[in-house]
Amino acid sequence: MKRTIDQLPTAKNKAISLSVAPIAETQTDKKTHSKSGLKWDPKRLAAIPAEWGGDQIQDGDGLVGEIRVAKSNAVSIRYRYAFKWKNKNTWFQCGTWPKKSLADIRKSRDDAQALLSTGVNPTDHKNAEKITNQTQIEEIIAQAATADNENKTFFDMYTDWKKNGVKRKDGNSEIERSFEKDVLPKLKNIPVKNLTEKNLREVLSAMADRDVGRSTEQRYNDLAQLFNWAQKRPPYRKLLVEGNPLDLIDIDIILPNDYDPDAVRERILYPRDIRQLREVFIAMGTTYDETPAGQKYGVPRPMKKENQIALWICLATMCRIGELLMTKWKDVDLKDGIWTVPKENVKGSIRNQKSQTVALSSFGLKQFKELHALTGVTPYCFPNTKKNNHVDLKTVSKIVGDCQTMFKKQNKPLKGRRNDNSLVLNSGQDGNWTPHDLRRTGSTMLQAMGEDTNMIDRCQNHKIDEPKTRAHYMHYKYRLPKRKIWERLGLEIENIFAGKPDWQDQYL
Description:
The chain folds into 3 domains: 2-119, Integrase, DNA-binding domain (Double Stranded RNA Binding Domain), CATH 3.30.160; 154-254, Orthogonal Bundle (DNA polymerase, domain 1), CATH 1.10.150; 271-507, Orthogonal Bundle (hpI Integrase, Chain A). 45% of the residues lie in helices and 9% in strands. The chain contains 19 helices and 8 strands. The strands form 2 sheets. Strands 1-2-3-4-5 form a 5-stranded mixed β-sheet, with helices on one face. The chain has a 3-stranded antiparallel β-sheet with strand order 6-7-8. A hairpin with a 2-residue loop joins strand 4 (75-85) and strand 5. The protein starts with a strand and ends in an 11-residue tail after the last helix.
């Protein structure tokens, strides 16, 4: 139904005040409306009642408004301009009031009329304008993306590689640590297209100057993996159009002359060292406990009992320190003396990982029970300070290293960390020792005692190179012979603690 302005409600509607006498709410013809001299304006539009929903109002010159009513009874009016195009009645959408002002709606109608006068369909013109605007926006975005790609920095490339090109078992935490320390400070903001051999050489040479040959070689290998990944993928492929700058570097020239990549660490703890380590732990605790309150700040704190226990478990089970520190109490059966190492905690590539079941010796079980008294209320055997995860996997190694500063090359003491030689064994004549050396010590002790080397490998969860047919058909777990080996190792540790005669010459 078409409505004229003369059909607005009477004075019952307070939103509008007309300068003529009120007209009854009945439909009148257009002539009466046109004679009244009244035109639609925002106030009169606002006075339109919801009952008019679906009706139309005429605004003149082909502009027609369709009244719409929302669920909230809010009134809006959608305006269209009627015209003929190729002998067909056609509509041009001019906008919706009140979202668009009535003046702008009428201007849209006027613009459409002007286009028609030049032979242009206003609807087609509007659509073409939208397409043109969108095309311009897409071009601007594409140009910005191209400019951004051309200015990608080393940090951008490293971040993409770390997310999509490398997946280490530790969640890439070692890559992050090492790059943040040695690589990013020098290369972070350099555009990839400007990276040179000189930039990379400076990073590796600075590491070599610190006499960290193995770490230098590892960073070189990491960088090689990064650049090889980037050369195959946009946008870095184009940015490295002149080639991989790392290919110009001979790492052997950078590494120290005395660096031997094939060198095997041979440090083991002899019985005298094991006894001395135990005595050091006892002495530290006794001295600290006997120091009067108020004076303890002048006495070195003993190593936390949890960390002492971790070292003895490493020796008794020949496990890796990282595997131990990730352990949860649900994986330790204190009743039957079984510790299960989940395969996800085991070092190695995902396809080569396999779980390990450790039959704890009497000595090893005793250590876990002492630990349980300290941390058994938490899910983790070695919880962090928030008790919501395990401690950092390098915690124990750092503590042991901090107590052997005579073997460190550093310009000044590390802030907030211990710096002494309290854990130096045998006056340092055999060099420094690490938690991983305890794994080597345990296996060497068993070897000296005549145990089968294949069985020692199995106790250490090493991969045994066997024909594939054996992997298919032979699934014996060797649990009983391995239990006997661990028990024998535990007894030997207790013998060493008891000061029984050394036979360390057999370890040589």
